[in-house]
Amino acid sequence: MPRLCSLALLVLLASTQLGGSCSEPDAVPLEELQKDITPPFDYALYCDENGTLVGSRSAVLLVYRAAHLERVYADSRAGNSRAQALFEQLEATLRATGQELARKSLGIACGSLPACVAQWHKLDEFMPSRGEGGMRLRQVMADSFSQEAKLQHVRNTTIAAVLDVLLVGTVLRRGAAGATEAEAATAEARTAAAEAATPVEAGRLALAGLEARIAAEELAALEARLAEAEALETAARHPQSLKELARHRPASSQPPSGIEAEHPRWTSYVAYWHRRYEELAGTRPLPPRVPEAKPPLTWNSYSGLLNTFQRSLEFQRAVTRWLQQAEGSRQCIPGMKQPLVTDNTGLQLEGRAHPVYVDQLAVDQATLGAGRQPSVHSFSNKQHSFSGKGLNEVRDQLKIDSLEARTKYSGVVEVRRRGHPLFGQKVRISRVHIVYDATTLDAEIRKALLKAAPQNGVDLHLYVP
Question: Is pLDDT at 15 greater than 80 in this prediction?
Fold first, then answer.
């Protein structure tokens, strides 16, 4: 049975050159589909007299041609056995695609957000129909994705974000004017919830919209952090010259030795490489926060960067869980009566074009209310290898980290996390904290760091996950 391989791969890779990325014969590049001129409807275009799909591209073309898809679905609902058999095959295809995407889209943010979740909006280009037939296929795909994602221990907010894209409206379809588009998507979600058949369904859609917006904002934080880390990376890059760079063009079907062609990290690298090439060529605008186009990192450098990024994410999540528990809050924020700790929370500082994302933001809910000054603490998490370094070097590193934390996460800020009790409000950060990974720190270094912290205007905590 043909599979919608190009659909699954596009969502994962956001690439238009997919022919060599799939072992099935029906991988159709999006560019080719966009040139398609829909012919008059005829079942023979897609199936035999029994409704069995024929041809290598019939399934992809039928899903892409919205009017034809809706015709088949309407006929199947009316009792046409040929249409019923044909649509059942599409459902089976989308069910398998949903499972495959759940397994392959974990990537660098494993357990938090799919590495390529920002590209879920590409689904609309392959399956544009928002009619009953298109939404039925989206529902089938959403259900299978959700079931498989739960088996993979993906966080509920991530699942909700994907379901919101599939069923409600793509809150992740945002460009430079992200806030405006997010608000429009929120309105679309509310409309969908209001039009739902039952109160239960309306409630589910509304909850999915809320959780999806949280996941979308966390995604923005991860994207910003990764872009910043990549821009500062000093490891090996490919040549700057486009002519020289083109000689190093990677192919999804030709991974390095020991790496599977469909491994999420390799497919992610191929998409990353092509984005950087287009930015250098001037055919793609630079993303926010990136001051200049740089050639892509080599595969080894890119993989090493993601390894480091993954470790930092895991440490951050461990610190968040610790602060949210009684033990961590007692040690770090003992004065808070009702602490609320959120991670990857957007903060807008005056004079900055883009928000910064603090590792953790702690708010004492007991201090909230009209006319009151809320107690708000910011946390910056750091992992360093101090092996072989003298105490002066250790103190210098703390000084650098403290200056960065005070610059980015102190003073008067506007909280940009939707759903947060302080959303849209300007508040003053009461205290700035730094949390170091103390796994490898010996007693002498611990003592030196703790002694130097007050001189740098921060509260320092040493944590072993």
Answer: no
User: Among 170, 195, 227, which residue terminates a domain?
Assistant: 227
- Supply the DSSP string of 78-136, one letter for each residue: TT-HHHHHHHHHHHHHHHHHHHHHHHH--GGGTTT--TTGGGGGGHHHHS---SHHHHH
Name which of 133, 223, 207, 106 is nearest 163 in CA terms. 207
pLDDT at 123: 65
Residues 239 and 219 in one domain: no
pLDDT above 70: percentage of residues in the chain: 72
pLDDT of 370 strictly over 50? yes
Confidence of residue 29 (pLDDT cuts 50, 70, 90): low
User: C-alpha angle 270/225/125, rounded to 5°?
Assistant: 45
Q: Tell me: pLDDT of 3 over 90.
A: no
Three-class DSSP category at 200: helix
The number of folded domains in the chain is 3
- Mean pLDDT throughout 203-231? 60
Question: Could you tell me which residues are beta bridge partners of residue 356?
Answer: 347
Does one domain contain both 93 and 240? no
**Is 316 part of a structural domain of the chain?**
no
More confident residue, 418 or 437: 437
| Parent domain of 450 | 325-463
**Same-domain check for residues 335 and 303:** no
User: H or E segment at 301?
Assistant: helix 299-324
DSSP for 166-188 reads: III--TT---TTHHHHHHHHHHH
| Rounded Cα distance, 263 and 259, in Å | 7
- In a domain, residue 117? The reply is yes
Please give the structure tokens belonging to residue 26: 């029906």
pLDDT on residue 27: 53
